[in-house]
Amino acid sequence: MAIDGLIILDPTGRPIIQSSYTTYPAAYPLLHIEALNNALAKAPREGSVDPVIYVGELSCSSACCHVEVGGMRFLATISGDVDPLIAFAFLDAFTEILQDYFGVVSVATLKDNFDIVYQLLEETLDSSGHPLTTSPNLLSDIVLSPSLISKLLASVSATPGVPSVRQGGSFGSNGASGAFTSPIPWRKAGVRHNHNEILFDVVEEMRGIVGKNGTTLASNVFGKIESNSKLSGTPDLTLTFTNPNVMADCAFHPCVRLQKWTRDNALSFVPPEGRFILADYQYRPPQSAVVSNVPIPLSLKANMDMGEFGGTFALTLTSRLIKVMENLELKFYLGEDATSAQCTLSSAGSSVGSVGSADGSWSFNSRTKTLQWEILNMRSSGSWILRGSWTSKIKAPRPAHAFQIRFEIPSYSFSSLKVDQLRLSSETYKMYKGVRMRSKGSIEWRW
Amino acid sequence: MSTQQGQDAKFFQRGKIEEFRAELQAAEAKDKKFQKRKTVLKKIVANITMGNDMSPLFHDVIQCIGTPLLEIKKMVYLFLVSYGRSKPDQIHLVIPSFLQDCNDRNPLIRALAIRTMSYIPIPVVTEALTDQLRHCLKDRDPYVRKTAAICVAKVYTADPRKAERKGFVELLRDMLIDENATVVSNAVAALSEIGDRQDGVIFKLNLTIANKLLSALGESSEWGQIYILDSLLRYVPEQHADAEMMAERVIVQLQHANSAVVLTTIKVLLYLMNYMGDRRLIDYICRKMGPPLVTLLSSGPEVQYVALRNILLIIQRRPTVLKNDVKAFFCKYNDPIYVKLAKLEIMYRLAREENAREVLAELEEYASEVDVDFVRKAVRSIGRLAIKVEPAADKCIESLLKLIETKVTYVVQEAVIVTKDIFRRYPGKYEGIIPKICENLDALDEPEAKAAMVWILGQFADKIDNAEELLDDLVYSFLDEPAEVQLAHLTAVVKLFIYKSQSEVTKALVHKVLKWATEDIDNPDLRDRGFMYWRMLAMNPAVAAEIVLAEKPAITTDSDRMDRGALDQLLLHTGTLGSIYHKNPETFIRNAAGRALIDSPALNANSRAVLVSLARPQLPPMAISVSGPGPVEPTRPSQPSEATNSVPLPTIMESSRSDERDLLDVEGDDGAGGDSGEGYPEGDDDGPVTKAADPYASLGGAFGGYVTDVPQPVAGGSRGGDLDDLLL
């Protein structure tokens, strides 16, 4: 039930930092690093390496779970009968902690702060590999963040009398493990703010596949309620919705009282400090008892003509939404042997009809062999057209049979989820609350 | 004064031991606020993390241990963690400091001290730790207690019998009812670690404690929840009602944001379902498990991969889970290849008459993609779909023919391979397409495809006008072919001869091949078969015809589902490495403790019938009866007593299983060590399971031979695809 250790590799595959593999032979971590590097080198394409690599050499049979973070590889080695998901969940949590501490996770920030990274490793993963505390709220009490250290040092030098938590000659036992005496594992006790506020961002993402004939094969909307809480004391919140039944298959932050949700469809919780994800859900369209697809807010007409050594195409995009879609981006992989592409843009309908950057732009990336079409603002009426041709080195080119479309819709939600009210009990202060909606989509459109 | 950002990077250079030593010595004289020492120690730790050997500085670094600055103390301790074990002769110098820190006012330091000591498995340190640990386990600060709990597992690893004698296991057990949830979950983690050892005490839960742990669940961290949930597998329900009540309490955890918590919850539910009697509840739980599994698919590709491998196992045992969700597994063009392949397998598993059309349309789409591996799998899946879902067979064949027309060699080859199986599944139905296939003879260059083609030519030689010509063409390279193609050739020409014994071409052909096989080939299989055919044809051609053209059993892909007993057992490892590789962990992980369902009055009859009992290494070999692969005959509820008798009860159950007060069976803790009859051989855990006692020896076929691509003959009665069969 445990992770052996964690290793961070730089983009060239050399270790930057690793946890202390005290109970393992020295070759053990090296063996895993080598196995991963070999697998990566052998991979025909990026992202085609199995995320769990079995290492059976020597007498230790174990596995190496790896993810890419900011160009680096984070790898967790597991032996014994361990859930690789624990490894991945831990890697995720650890990356989040690093982001919390350093803002950006990169080779430079890790090398600059290796002592903090090392302390964090010690604190989050004990040597028998049990993940311990990964809640940033609690860690901040045990391992000081770089900004806090410099602040503390500054204050110490300015006013030597200031009682510091862990600085100076005497160790105050007061705050040291305040985090662990807190009755709530995700929130430290005694938080104070002058200005109390909590903000919610509801972000919904549509993922869909549209078939050749234009019918929607699958489309799902996954929602997330992201929160940023700056509240004093132990605020007990109850969040209710006017239409909670649009949320299905919810997953909640540990702070949410699950029984209460099951009973009253209300989110009752004491939030952690700072940013956290309160809930994930899937949008269930109200009218359907059975599985049904959420309508896709745009349509694409593709006229493709494949020829020898290339082909021509005409793509027409139309919005089906009243809201404006932003940052629409369509990607089309032209095949390994594509050499160039030429396009013209136009638009039709009620829009001005001018061809310019305001209406979109296209580019061909000769490294990824991908044609990209961008429309910054796509209004509700009219259509956008991209005509063009591409050339290929081989006689029968094999482009992708699907377009990848991404878009964003500000101040919109597919589910029309609406917050009814947010009540605060157990504390008396007034707080500022805010809710924002945002949607995005990624659609695979086949032709 | 303040730490300079960006400066630390330069510490990452090859360490100079002497320089560090000099700097440390210089710092002793004059060091305002210990900044100098801090800087040097930082450099030293940087070098350790890079893998440079800093152990020569041992003596110099431990001088700093008394420095009243937590940051410095932490770094000295880091140093000790790295090199303490390699300095058994000098470690005693640090012990006084250790002891002092164990009693420091600051709980962080107390915890740090025992944690560091537990990392140094040297007798003097362990000795000192043993005394301190006892106090720390009862420390008033929960941070210290939770750290101490984990340390017990370390002490136990160092010397199991001694830790038992000192009563640490009981101390740990008492922590299960600690008021702090983090302490509880760490105690559970430590006990699990001990219980997973082959020489450890057995860690079992009774109903009371299991319920206590469940109530700590809500306040635990996500990791703590995982430990607690996983430990529930150590609870054996005695009554249906117990299992059902527990499942109802656990099921809310399916709504957790952490994917590992979700999967562990599913593992517990799958386990508890074996002990339930209420069909409606089981069905309800199955329906509840589907959506969270689908939600896992919205995570990153790594999590998706692990989830998909597990889903594949789960739906084989519980086909109602995700029954209507095949769409969730449609592959996207940009999915990584390992995700695509895993999804494809699941799509095939979920295919039924109702969704066959959708699935086929998707498979056709995939067959036009670029990635060769994926395209091959897709083509093969079309054929398997034809075999699995009879009403969809026509459409699948059509689609295969279209694919053959593309003339893309690897597509054609895969199509030929699956077509052979389709002919066997539906005898006499699709032979009309043979001419189309024969047009592509030249495209075949892979052994499997060639062998399939040759098989088709031989089997249907009477329906193919120019079969002898075609075979004659192919046989041209006989001597250079791999054995599987040669064997196919041999049989094919014999069949041809039986069909068309009048033709001169045929006679010459069969003579040529038999001669090659018996005279020019070194492979004994081939030679023997050659001789056998030769004699049969020479002595009694009529009997030869009967034998060679005997009716073949129809095939199905349904039996490529894993054996039920093996599945039950693998599902206890849901989410773990075993479920990724679809193997039982103890077959490929050293020292892994096996898991098996444990019999109890509540265990449902079907699960009991396929129960795999688990041997501990010290037990004498015992007879294990495991039903072979193939369908599990539904047993009537009135028969369980018979079924029980045929399977030896796992010996673990011999110990007081219903003793309400005893939640741990600490065997051999009476000071007798491992000498008592019930104990375990001491210090000998290198040879985990002897061959004779290996309970999986008879399961070889269930795991190793798990090749889903190969359809197999229908065994015994028909399975009938009744989903309810697997409900109980």
Separate helix tally of chain A: 9
Task: Provide the helix percentage of chain A.
Answer: 10-25%
Strand content range of chain A: 35-45%
Structural class of chain B: mainly alpha
**What's the overall average pLDDT of chain B, rounded?**
76
Q: Give the strand tally of chain A.
A: 21
Reported for the largest beta sheet of chain B, the result is:
2 strands, antiparallel
Outline of chain A? globular
Radius of gyration of chain A, taken over Cα atoms and rounded to an integer in Å: 26 Å
Question: How far from one another are the termini of chain B?
Answer: 70 Å
Mean pLDDT of chain A: 81
Give me the oligomer status: heterodimer
| Widest beta sheet: strand line-up of chain B | 1-3
Contiguous uncertain segments of 5+ residues of chain B: 1-10, 616-710, 713-724
Distance between the termini of chain A: 47 Å
Question: Would you list the SSEs of chain A in sequence order as H and E?
Answer: EEHEEEHHHHHHHEEEEHEEEEEEEEEEEE
The main sheet of chain A comes to:
9 strands, mixed
- Most extensive interface between two protein chains, with residue counts: A-B, 116 and 118 residues
Please tally the β strands of chain B and state the result.
Answer: 4
Percent range of helical residues of chain B: 40-55%
Offer a few descriptive terms.
heterodimer, A: 447 residues, alpha+beta, 9-stranded mixed β-sheet, 5-stranded antiparallel β-sheet, 40% strand, B: 728 residues, mainly alpha, two-stranded antiparallel ribbon, 4 strands, 54% helix, disordered N terminus, Longin-like_dom_sf (chain A)
Task: Give the secondary structure arrangement, pairings included.
The complex is a heterodimer of chains A (447) and B (728).
Chain A (H helix, E strand, L loop, with lengths): L4 E5 L5 E4 L8 H16 L9 E4 L6 E8 L2 E8 L4 H19 L4 H6 L1 H11 L11 H7 L3 H13 L14 H4 L1 H4 L15 E14 L5 E15 L5 E6 L5 E6 L5 H7 L2 E3 L4 E10 L14 E10 L2 E10 L5 E9 L4 E11 L12 E5 L4 E9 L4 E10 L9 E9 L8 E7 L6 E15 L1
Parallel strand pairs in A: 6-21
Antiparallel strand pairs in A: 1-2, 1-5, 3-4, 4-5, 6-7, 7-11, 8-10, 8-20, 9-11, 12-13, 13-18, 14-17, 14-19, 15-18, 16-17, 19-21
Chain B lengths: L16 H13 L5 H15 L8 H5 L7 H14 L11 H8 L4 H12 L4 H14 L5 H17 L1 H6 L2 H7 L6 H16 L5 E2 L3 H11 L4 H10 L8 H11 L8 H15 L5 H18 L4 H17 L19 H14 L5 H12 L4 H17 L4 H13 L3 H17 L8 H5 L8 H13 L7 H9 L7 H17 L4 H17 L3 H16 L1 H8 L6 E2 L7 H8 L5 H5 L23 H5 L30 H7 L17 E2 L34 H4 L8 E2 L15
Antiparallel strand pairs in B: 1-3, 2-4
Helix pairs in contact in B: 1-2, 2-4, 4-6, 5-6, 6-7, 6-8, 7-8, 8-11, 11-13, 13-15, 14-15, 15-16, 17-18, 17-30, 18-20, 19-20, 19-21, 20-21, 20-22, 21-22, 22-24, 24-26, 25-26, 25-27, 26-27, 26-28, 26-29, 27-28, 28-29
